[in-house]
Write a structure and sequence with these properties.
It comes from Trema orientale. This is LRR domain containing protein. The chain has about 150 residues and is α/β, with parallel strands linked by helices. The protein has one domain. The chain contains two helices and eleven strands; from the N terminus they run H-E-E-E-E-E-E-E-H-E-E-E-E. The protein has a six-stranded parallel sheet with strand order 1-3-5-7-8-10, with no helix packed on it.
């Protein structure tokens, strides 16, 4: 399905009560911004083609769960530090530094899912006192220096 950026932004401006948004395999988007006026948005799923979308900014303040698949390396995640409980990332070019910053910033994070991410080639420290579930699936090129520090 072809969807352009202005259509999606217009939809967001007319849908302040939206609590679940899923954008799956839509072409035509060059950038995507989830605005902070979506105060009811709890769940977000974005899965698109990496070569089409160049920038993603997620500013939903009450977001609890987000899944991002096949996105560019520039993901600006600005959800509330204590409301985000689940972060799932698949086939996205992220760095170890970016991942560590997200884990440290989101103090309420309980679930972290990393799937088919082969760009994490530096030392990564996954450290969180609230993390209860860590799922690493498919090939991830983590080094031997990867440190996982979570309760239990």
């Amino acid at each position: 399905m072809d969807v352009n950026t202005s259509v999606v932004q217009n939809f967001f401006s007319c849908s302040p009560m939206l609590d679940d948004f899923r954008l799956i395999e839509c072409s035509g988007l060059t950038s995507l911004e989830i605005p902070n006026n979506l105060v009811k948005l709890k769940s977000l799923l974005i899965k698109t083609r990496t070569d089409e979308i160049s920038k993603v900014a997620i500013r939903a303040s009450n977001l609890e769960s987000t899944y991002s698949g096949s996105l560019p390396s520039e993901i600006k995640l600005e959800a509330s530090e204590d409301t985000l409980k689940k972060l799932a990332i698949e086939r996205t070019n992220i760095t170890g530094t970016w991942l560590q910053c997200q884990i440290a910033r989101f103090v309420g994070l309980k679930v972290l899912i990393l799937e088919n991410i082969d760009t994490l080639t530096t030392t990564v420290k996954i450290s969180s006192q609230t993390l209860t579930e860590l799922i690493i699936m498919d090939y991830i090129n983590l080094e031997a220096e990867t440190i996982i520090d979570a309760p239990d």
